[in-house]
Amino acid sequence: MRIAILSPIHTSFYSRLVTFLTHKEPQIEVVQIVVRNIWNWQRIKSEYKRDGVRLLKKVHRKLLWGENTAVASLENSIAALGDSVKLPGRSLVDLAKQLNIPLMTVNDHNEQQVQDTLATLNLDAIVFTGGGLVRKNILNISKLGVINCHAGLLPNYRGMDVVEWPIIEMNSFPPQTGMTLHIMDKGVDTGPILATKPLPFRPNETIKDFRLRIEPEMVQFMIEGIKRLEANKLKARPQVKEDGKQYFVMHPRIKELANKKLNIKPD
Amino acid sequence: MKSALKKIVSLLLQVAIDFLDNPVTKNELQNFIINKISQLSQPNIITGLPAKSQYEFNLTVQNAIGAKLLSADQVQSQDNSDPKLDLDISTWMAGLPKSGVISPKGLIPGSIRNLLALINQNSSEYTAFVSDNFERLLRHVEVRREASLFLNPKADVKTTWLEKHAVSIAFSSYSRKSKDPRFINAALKLNGWAYAQHANMNPGSQLIRYLLALSEAEITVKELFS
Fold first, then answer.
1. Is B142 within 8 Å of A169 when comparing Cβ atoms?
2. What 3-state class would DSSP assign to B39?
3. ipTM of the shown complex
């Protein structure tokens, strides 16, 4: 199975782990990595317009210090997973060199040069590990499409903050949290579902700790999904628009209520 | 050197985050409601304003009492009747474009009062229409954020703000009706973005409608989350 990886930034732990672990699978070949250039004014402008101050916080955390600093000691973290599999290098550039995988750096995944390059590679699938919207020209290139792991349970929880919204909407603990492997389409998390995996909150677990715990789970789920796709063991199930709703970034006041609600658990 | 540079950039970024990440707090907004109600309750301030503004102010006071921001003995209660307009809903609906009340060109002025009227009518005949239009409005506000809700045709600043506050009020109302928290989420954002413009505003229809938007959000949070 021939796949390409789309990545938002060369230091993304998630992208690096997905690339490394997929490449280790005997039946799967990573033939191209496409990573977005962060030092691009258009990208910075559009992401700031979309995310506001959250973007600066993300940059501060991920770019300057990497996922390592705050979470290296947490045994369930993505950094710990990286340690356990001996993830080499410090960036996708290092990894691509080590594994001899072609890597291209672009301003936008949807650029013509990306389309032209990927179209020549006879791809079975493209694996999305972040980096904004993917447009029709890229969605239609590979045989199986562009695969994404969404940090929420589809079809119910599409969009943003899908760890927090199930808490607000829960009638009883635990909230409906988990992850979904799906094929991307032009909608927001509306593409056909390949697999879902519930991941419940643990008693007394905070939202922050849950988010740290779900990251390595998403890596493993993605790898498992790609292997099953290769073995023809996954069937895509189309979503019906009316089966779910799109959620958006949660206002701090609602987030505060979500945190309060999490602390009230039945015995 | 690299590590020192990283520390400097990190410090600058943190300063920028602290400066920009300064959303108006719940306490600031609640105190704003209380203080403005007190100011506007002074003799002769409200009575000089149009009937619609007087109605909205009285509703704000009722909401503030309901949300326990004020007690009933702190303000003089007023009889409150909505100076309803004569609305022909069917004609209005038939005249809307396919995109509904909101399109890439903007919000159609006056449509929010009709949507609110439809919510209050409680008729199953319009459920799908109301749901569809609120969903479109929600997506528009969430994607465009502070730049959302420009009017088509274009209008003056005051009219635009009045419509924005009407959307916030509608979101709160629809959130209570449908028990969908996404709409109060958007109303809180709209109200927060508007605060800087209204913090030092003189009494008038725009300020009063903003106060109503704030108080509707308070009553909605109380109803949905307690």
1. no
2. helix
3. 0.90
